[in-house]
Design a protein that fits this description.
Mean pLDDT: 93
GO molecular function, one term: transaminase activity
Shape: globular
Protein name: Aminotransferase-like protein
Cofactor: pyridoxal 5'-phosphate
Bound molecules: pyridoxal-5'-phosphate
GO cellular component, one term: cytosol
Structural class: alpha/beta
Radius of gyration: 22 Å
Low-confidence stretches: 1-26
Strand content: 15-25%
Family: Belongs to the class-III pyridoxal-phosphate-dependent aminotransferase family.
């Protein structure tokens, strides 16, 4: 059966029915859709079956971080599959898994004690949620009443039921709410563009959000909460939204006040995407549990992970020592080998330095050249993780209606009209307000000229798209 098919004119067809019926945030495949067929990945380019080359300016969904077609990674995975293709982790481990976990723990400057390797960001979040719950049962004085989680509206934490329940992605949750766990409540995200009042100083905004969180702990009963869950830089749901300075210190303080854990979801914003290996390094705090994914294996294998801090590990060590969890394919040798090689390449080639050095060029040129467009409401991000939010009215920040599916259409326009650039769409609603954005998240090894080309091309796409739309 042919699942992926190239249209005669090379254009992709998207999930039009679903997007128009719901919201452009619903970007899932329609059974009747056909897709551009990829022939190969080559450096920063995706090469289509008809030979056209797309500069992958978003690394898919912020996955690709060393580009495509890397022989070192391919060879490491091949070697691993020939040596040990599968590892039943109930009895065994592999050098690849041990080395990867060590590399990850070492990367946290002593903050994290152990790493746990799974296959997807959603699995990592499920494990994080269960770890947090079990932690309270492992305490010398167990706290079985801790059954609740507090998270933030319009965050995305994964597609499986537990991850979906702590997530605040309205459209992805809607159909499944009746079968999701109910012991989750949500507070406002830290979203300067739409959440901060006019002229409100950062400190006042942080104080207001910390109070909202504190009030939520009080409302649900502080000793019933396992953890507060947040993305340090919100990815797919809001479009690369960092918090204002001091926010994470403030929410960390609230968690400590009530003895709750802090889970940071770095599946999208982590592993170097924001310029430091871990996004929390820029917040002056460390989480108790952290999830990682996309950039860990850079797209070469499905691999994700959970990093666990000393407080949780020490408690398990004094308790049963057994996390009641596991997957057939956890710690998969091919995933570990790929991730290990990708991370070594990032280290050896100084790619985080490249991100740090070129991030100001990316941010300034996006803000100056794309941000000035009348339909661009806001440009925000960090490192190589940038979001462009589109609005119908720049003055009032009024969003486009959902049925315009602007974010998806812009990405599709760029592909169909052969601009040669691939960017990633997203959107949704926060507290009843919609937003459409695209994400620019190039591989960490692009050059300054690549960045200039991406920005100039995205600018043309945005100008031509809205000119054609009006
Ligand atoms: N958490 C965040 C922040 C994500 O962006 C995603 C995926 O987009 C997930 C979790 C889920 O990861 P996966 O799609 O690998 O299951």
């Amino acid at each position: 059966m042919v699942l992926v098919k190239l249209q005669a004119d090379g254009a992709s067809t998207v999930d039009r029915e679903t997007t128009s019926a719901q919201d452009s945030a619903v970007l899932h495949r329609h059974l009747g859709a056909s897709f551009l067929s990829l022939e190969k990945g080559q450096s920063s380019y995706l090469v289509l079956e008809d030979g056209r080359m797309i500069f992958d300016a978003s690394g898919g969904a912020a996955v690709g971080c060393i580009g495509w077609g890397n022989r070192r990674v391919a060879e490491a995975v091949t070697r691993q599959i020939l040596d040990v293709p599968y590892c039943p982790t109930i009895f065994y481990t592999t050098k690849a898994q041990e080395d990867l976990c060590q590399l990850l723990v070492d990367s946290t400057n002593g903050h994290m004690a152990r790493a746990y390797i799974v296959n997807s960001g959603s699995e990592a979040m499920e494990a994080a949620i269960k770890l947090a719950r079990q932690y309270y049962l492992e305490l010398e004085q167990p706290q079985p009443q801790r059954v609740r989680f507090i998270s933030r509206r319009q965050s995305y934490h994964g597609i499986t039921l537990g991850a979906l329940a702590v997530g605040g992605h309205v459209t992805r949750r809607a159909k499944f709410e009746p079968i999701m766990m109910k012991n989750v409540s949500q507070v406002s995200p830290c979203f300067e563009y739409r959440g901060k009042t006019n002229g409100e100083p950062d400190e006042a905004y942080v104080e207001r959000l910390a109070k909202e969180l504190d009030d939520e702990f009080q409302r649900v009963g502080p000793d019933t909460v396992c953890a507060f869950v947040a993305e340090p830089v919100v990815g797919a749901a809001l479009g690369c939204v960092p918090s204002v300075p001091g926010y994470f210190k403030a929410v960390r303080t609230v968690c400590e006040k009530y003895g709750a854990l802090l889970i940071l979801d770095e599946v999208m914003c982590g592993m170097g995407r924001t310029g430091t290996l871990h996004a929390w390094e820029q917040e002056g705090i460390a989480p108790d549990i952290q999830t990682i994914g996309k950039g860990l294996g850079g797209g070469y294998q499905p691999v994700a992970g959970v990093l666990v801090g000393h407080r949780v590990i020490n408690t398990f060590e004094k308790g049963t020592g057994v996390f009641v969890h596991g997957h057939t394919y956890q710690g998969h040798p091919a995933g570990c080998a790929a991730a290990l090689e990708v991370q070594r390449i990032i280290q050896e080639e100084g790619l985080l330095k490249n991100v740090q050095e070129l991030a100001p060029l990316l941010s300034k040129s996006l803000v100056d050249e794309v941000g000035s467009h009348p339909n661009v409401g806001n440009v925000r991000g960090r490192g190589f993780f940038w979001g462009i939010e589109f609005v119908a009215n720049k003055e009032t920040s009024e969003p486009f209606p959902a049925e315009d599916h602007v974010a998806m259409d812009i990405c599709e326009f760029a592909l169909a009209k052969n601009y040669g650039v691939g960017v990633y769409p997203g959107g949704g609603s926060v507290d009843g307000v919609r937003g459409d954005h695209i994400i620019i998240s190039p591989p960490y090894n692009v050059s300054g000229d690549d960045i200039k080309w991406i920005v100039a091309t995205v600018k043309r796409v945005v100008e031509d798209f809205f000119a054609a739309k009006s």
